[in-house]
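Issue: ligand-bound run for adenosine-5'-triphosphate - logging full I/O for the record.

Environment: standard queue, default settings, no custom constraints.

Inputs:
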Amino acid sequence: MARSHPSPSAAPVRFAGRDLGCVRGDRAIFAGLDFDLVAGGALVLSGPNGSGKSSLLRVLASLLPPAAGRLSWDGADVAEDPEAHRARLHYQGHHEALKPELTAVENLSFWAGLEGKLADAAPHALERFGLGDLADQPVRLLSAGQRRRLSLSRILASPAPLWLLDEPSVGLDARSVRTLEAEIEAHRAAGGMVVLATHQPLALSAVQELTVADFPPAPVTADDDPWAGALW
Ligand SMILES: Nc1ncnc2c1ncn2[C@@H]1O[C@H](COP(=O)(O)OP(=O)(O)OP(=O)(O)O)[C@@H](O)[C@H]1O
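Outputs:
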């Protein structure tokens, strides 16, 4: 539908956005943006720096209210219960938000607790990203790439049907990128969905693409602008 270039599917839409607009500070960032995601779907956001990919992810995570438009989950308006929406997703932003004095495994438990979830899969999650031997290491002693892997382990430590990932492969070594791709595909195969912004293409099957720069806010026209035609 619209300009998000979806793959054809007869499955019911789970997560959708209609006519979404975003304002940050006093600047309109994008407008009129639509997307549909079905179970197992993946939406890859592209666009140049500053086009609004991170802003859109924050809107989808109910961390930033849309300036216009509507998000729905199974047909229900997300705005009616933003907390329920946040409980069904994992949001991975640019910042890792790890507690440096806690160990790797304690960080996963801490985050799961904050989200009202159990980090039952924490040992598996650490193993998947090659951090099994570092589970009891304070995070302040981890390298930048290890912290990034720990941050991604958080997503695997507790289940959530929707993953929102902002540049998830930045700082990862090649092996960890392959792990990330495999985990995203496994999540989708189990009916999960992912929306991700990335400048580094990931090997994922049947993704929908959405170029955020294709949805600029409407320029002010002479009809809208009371100062248009002024002579100074
Ligand atoms: N907290 C904020 N307050 C005001 N403006 C902001 C804020 N955060 C971002 N912006 C502006 O919103 C616009 C979109 O930023 P955003 O981070 O969403 O872009 P992006 O497409 O993710 O960029 P990049 O590819 O560099 O990560 C930019 O012009 C940016 O300056």
